Amino acid sequence: MTKGDDWAERARRALVRTIAEEVIETENWLGKRALDPRVMEAMAKVPRHEFVAGAQRLFAYENRPLPIGHGQTISQPYMVAVMTDLSAAGPGTRVLEVGTGCGYQAAVLGELGARVTSVELVPELAEGAARRLERLGYDRVDVHQGDGARGWPPDAPYEAIVVTAAAFARVPPALLDQLAPGGRLVIPIEHGGARRGLFRFGPEQELLVITKDAEGRTSERGILPVAFVPLLEGKGRPRGH
Ligand code: SAH
Question: Of all helices (H) and strands (E), which one includes residue 31?
Answer without folding.
Answer: none
